[in-house]
Amino acid sequence: MTAATHSTLFPQVPETADAVLDGLDPEQREVALALTGPVCVLAGAGTGKTRAITHRIAYGVRAGILQPASVLAVTFTNRAAGEMRGRLRQLGAGGVQARTFHSAALRQLQFFWPKAVGGDLPRLLERKVQLVAEAAARCRVRLDRNELRDVTGEIEWAKVTQTVPADYPAVVAKSVRDAPRDPAEIGQIYAMYEQLKRDRSVIDFEDVLLLTVGILQDRHDIADQIRRQYQHFVVDEYQDVSPLQQRLLDLWLGDRDNLCVVGDASQTIYSFTGATPDHLLATVVKLVRDYRSTPQVVHLANGLLGQARGRAAEHRLELISQRDPGPEPAYTEYADEPAEAEGTARRIRDLIAAGVPAGEIAVLYRINAQSEVYEQALADAGVPYQLRGAERFFERQEVREAGVALRGAARAGGNDSLLDDAEDLPAQVRAVLSTKGWTTQAPAGSGAARDRWESLAALVRLAEDFARAKPGATLSDLVAELDERAAAQHAPTVQGVTLASLHAAKGLEWDAVFLVGLTEGMMPITYAKTDEQVEEERRLLYVGVTRARLHLTLSWALSRSPGGRASRRPSHFLKGLRPGSGQLGSSSAARTGGIERGGAAARRKVRGPVLCRVCGATLTEAGAMKLMRCEDCPSDMDEGLYERLRDWRAEQARELAQPAYCVFTDKTLMAIAERVPTTDGELSSISGVGVRKLNPSAQVGREERATTSSEENSSKK
Questions:
Q1: How far does CA 620 lie from the centroid of its chain?
Q2: Alpha-carbon gap, residue 452 to 210, rounded angstroms
Q3: Which residues on neighbouring strands pair with residue 510, listed in sequence order?
């Protein structure tokens, strides 16, 4: 999912400093050679910014100009920091510190706290939501789940903008910010939250930055010690720096200017944390050669930004694709959201059948609540998927256990009978991991068992790649590689279509990207009211577009549920870009693909509202519509039939060597067991069965009819 996906997994370390520069384009080389003074790099999406700055650091280290321990590279996510450490290690500059702002600050805070304050550092609060909920309750303010999330986010915003509780209402009144509740109430909750933290001797992630800033401001001796340690700073994604992070960076720097910042003003999507693109508006080097996306995708991205307004728009980058031409972006209009999800799943299934790996496909949406209908549609289509934002790979229990087992086998060497029949490294790994649950075939079903198998399978694939890249490598060599990857959080790829929000997709890339739900009110989101907020939504869509290397599909639905009023409109961000929406320039619409009206939905009969067969309420959720009843309404399911269907599904999954959910999901089996169809037509009318699965699943109908015929009386009850 990153730029490293298509490169050699285990490249050779460059032999000399000059060899580090090999393969860089002129602009990247200019960045790599600019090792002194302030350097500002404006880098468009897919232009190789991480490549440029890691080669800059590595060249400086390998040439003897920079000492590895004197360089601190900071970015915004653990994944990005891990990727940077991995690349630096591959370039022979493994001693450089590459961390997130919070990680670097926490490390310094833990080291200097006893000297600056005394005693142990207060415990770090992993999740502040529960404490915010308690603070609200003590203030006699009732918050539902969404309000609780919004108020928590508001407190985070206040802290990174260095706004204290007493000043919060006034600051909000002076700004264009829309508070989720009465600012006075939020100020009270904020104050109580801070009091509860003091009472319980805990700190949150924002406190890590605030306390580090406080110590460096008050203790010049500690600030000087850190400045002696770190002489050179590199900041990735600089456009997302908050005022608090900028203050910390200023304190790290002191009166020096050995700073290299890289970012793109067109990708500022975190203004809710206080970030602005203003720091990047003085350009030194521009990276505009896009190595990620085809000319068709790049053209759409450029056209999208061509409509932007505001200061950052004045400095937008016109990307130039370096790839061969590919397919035009596709635009599809659907009748309703379930039809959009089903159509997307069909297209994904077709791409996989055409040879595109599932791990190189992503479905991106504006908010996480949109994922459920796509999870259901992909499961119904028999397509494996993974949700972005899960637990880190090397922190998973099964991965830790696998590491222990591999390490033990490596120490035992030839004395481990488990390895007697293993002829090479991959065979040794497969033998060891077979004791932890890995099998040659994926297990039936989904959930924890499937997730565990996928993790172990990723380790097996990594071992195979490692053995191909380094013939003669031993199990001990692989264990060392895993240890280094764990330290760098450089995880192997787990196969499956990625479902992610647009925010979570930043910094990633795939061969095929589906941007879904592109309607007014969702993109831009309904609460984006000011010009600045709307422009941030445009930049967010730009991030989504530029995640695609080759295939890009944009879609929207005219109503939420089947039979609903077709009142929605496609996002105005697509005006002049999608066919039939007017032209912004001579070639904007001409260069993009045509709109498909409804896809498969256009060939279906128009459906009325789906009503609960128990209480009559209108159903909107995919799972409820499959069951034809509200989730909490009484079920009349034939439990015996349901269990027999589960047994049949498990047998089919084994024969097909597929997960059980690829045959039928649990919800589909529940729907069959509740409705007890007696004909193929009745069976195919159940959502999740359909005509496509009818022939392979005719045995289901025959089994049901055979089962129910002998129990006809009880079934009719």
A1: 26
A2: 39
A3: 548
